[in-house]
C-alpha cells in the first residue's frame, strides 16, 4: 500500500511537471489580452454615427476604410475624430469627421466634415 501511494504521488508529480510549461506558454499569457481585445472600444458608438452621417452627406460613396484618430477634451465637451476613406465617381478621398458632444450627457454639439486628398 505504501508503495502504491508513493507511486501515485510520483505520477501526480510527473503530470504537474509536464503541464507546468503549458501554463507559461504564450497562449496562456494571451488569454487576458484576447478577452480585452474583444471588448467594444469607447469610441465605437461615435464611429458608427460618423459612418452613418458620412453616408448621408456623401450619397453614393462607399466607405473603404475607417480610422479612429483620437479624442480631445475641452471643458465639458469631447471631440472624437475619425478619418474615413471614400470612393465615389472614380475618385478616392478622405474625410475627417469630428463629433463634438457633452461629456456627461453625450448630447451632440456639432458634427463637422473636412475633405482631404490623403
TrEMBL record:
Q: What organism does the record attribute this protein to?
A: Bacillus infantis
- Protein name (record): DUF3889 domain-containing protein
Pfam families tied to this protein? DUF3889 (PF13028)
- Superkingdom field: Bacteria
